[in-house]
Every structure is written in structure tokens, then in C-alpha cells.
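Deliverable D5.2: sample structural annotation.
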Amino acid sequence: MENQILAINDDGSIQYQQLTSKYLEGACEVTKKTVFTSGTMCRFLGVPEDEDALAELTQISRTAAKDGVSVIAIDKTTDKVVAVAINKFLQKSQPFFENFRKTFKNPKSLKIIDFITSSDDHCDLFEHCKVDCLMEILFLGTLPEYRKKGIAKKLCELSVDVAQKLYDGVNVKKCVDGKDLTLEPVPKVVYAIFVSFISQRIGKELGFEIAAERSNRRLELMGQVFENPNSETATTTIEYKMLGKN
């Protein structure tokens, strides 16, 4: 069944499920309106005012979604995507962002890629956790009118559940492009780069561990130093949660 429901909120208005082809464009639109518009680094670099940068960055969501493990929240009244956790497998031998670095032209979107990859460089989680495959909660976003309802936390919780099922040998991947998805690769860790104090609180509540931190107030991107002394959150945290046999 394509639209298998993972959860429904207490009042029955929000439905959670894995992302499928039906909702792919809606999910990409949510990342564009949230992660790339209101995200701390995107705002600091002026991404929201740059349509070319937004278009390039949205390609990342569309590509990551092909792994079949993203989770979305849908308003049951409108059947519209209102929040997303775009999830992606990472393997040490297959760097995800290199192709984007080669094809992107906009300097702002390139700086966002540099921010993400340089955060990863602060801690080699493959070595830290002694694993060969991770599932990253790559982009987590909720439309403004649906915030403060616990939706983002639920998306993270369900993302861990999806990863755990894969770890246990159950292929729950959902294709978004008509291609069959095999069980492999299987993640052994779920991780995220939490930029805001809100997402960091979610990580703490769900039992994520902090592997490394970096300053949000002084950054070096593509050889340039950026000062952002008014950042609401002092540091970005690289956090992870080990999966285990049930």
C-alpha cells in the first residue's frame, strides 16, 4: 500500500507517512519555504532572496528523496504536505554532495553545501561509530502555521523508526521515481546536523548524542570568514543515535 500511515496526531488533523511520488513536489516545496528560507545559515547568506540559489538547493531534496526513507506530515483536510524530514543514506565511499558541488553555479548554494560538508568534517561519524552506513536527517522543516505542535519531533522519531526497521532487515523503503529499492544499504546510525536550539532540543528528547559542535557566530566557508554574532543559537551540533537489535 503506497500511502501507509505511520501515525496520526491526537486530534486527527495531521497524518504522518513516508514520502511517495504523489507528495514529492509538495515535500520539496516545503523544504524551499522552510529550510532554505528560514534556516539560520540560509538567511545569513541571503538565500531566500535568490531564486537561483533556492532552485539549486531544492534539487538536493529531490535527489535525497530517491533513497526512499523520507517522512512527511500531511494536513488531512487539504491533503497537503506541511512538514518534512528529508532523509538520506550516507556511505563513506560515496560522498553525496560532490556532484552538486560540480554542477551548482550559484555562490550562495555552494556556500550552503560547504557549510554542510564542513560540519561533517568536524567529526568522522563513520570512524566515531565504527559503521559503514548512516542515515542522515538531512532537512527538517515545518511550515510556519503548523509549528509548535510537536510535528518536527514526531518526524524525527518516525525517521529513527524507519531506520530501525531497515536495521532489523525489513525493507520499508518507498520509491519516489518508479525504481525498485533493495534493502541495502542498511543504516546502523541515524544522525543530523542540528543548527537551531529547537532541533537540538528534539535531539536531546529523542536520546541523540552529541559527537561535535561548531560555532554559528564565526564561520569559514569557501575560504571566507563570516561573522554572525547575533545568531540565536551559539553552536551547530553534529548528533547521532545508534540503532540496535530489538
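Annotation notes: The chain has one domain: 5-242. The longest strand covers residues 80-91.
The annotation will be released with the project's public dataset once the embargo ends.
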